[in-house]
Design brief:
Length: 185
């Protein structure tokens, strides 16, 4: 009988040891899973910034290079990737608009400027960035259809000048505003 009791105690000890090992393995696995998920999410959040940086580089090259269309198209691809990850990012929309403008797609560029400046997230842009975007959008409006969009371009330019305010003189906006008023008579 004593031999049977020691055998039961031994089996119970082995069972407790096996269960504690299973529990330990489960905890280690869940910790590894959480760590990899956090790392994946951290990388996922940095992806739009990486795409926007690449798009900015391509736009700079497109403005100064002979292969303008190729670099502008690469910038457009990068901004589209950034927008697929973060669709409400106004900076991505502004870069997209600039790339489209360099490619000669004025109407699409105008739409991207409008989306970037009308979204709630556009308030995250600095006043200088908003002012520059408004001036570029006004230039496109005047270039696309002079008569129909002059009033809208004037509104954009006035807003750009208000945003510039006392920080600095926005000569580009003033010059274009003068041309718009001259065109209206």
């Amino acid at each position: 009988m004593a031999g049977m009791a020691t055998e039961v105690i031994l089996q119970l000890g082995i069972l407790i040891l096996a269960l504690s090992m299973i529990f330990l393995m489960y905890n280690i696995r869940s910790q590894i899973t959480q760590t990899s998920t956090r790392t994946r999410n951290k990388n996922h959040q940095s992806q739009p910034n990486r795409h926007l940086a690449l798009a900015s580089r391509h736009l700079a090259r497109a403005r100064s290079a002979t292969h303008r269309a190729q670099h502008a198209k690469s910038a457009l691809v990068e901004t589209d990737w950034a927008l697929s990850i973060s669709p409400k990012d106004p900076e991505a929309q502004l870069l997209r608009a600039q790339a489209l403008h360099l490619m000669g797609h004025r109407a699409a560029a105008l739409k991207s400027f409008h989306v970037a400046l009308s979204s709630r997230a556009a308030k995250s842009l600095s006043a200088a960035d908003r002012a520059d975007a408004l001036v570029k959008m006004a230039e496109l409006k005047v270039a696309v259809n002079r008569r129909r969009r002059v009033d809208s371009a004037i509104e954009d330019l006035v807003e750009a000048l208000e945003l510039s305010g006392e920080e600095g003189n926005n000569s580009e906006a003033l010059c274009l505003l003068g041309k718009c008023y001259d065109g209206k008579g």
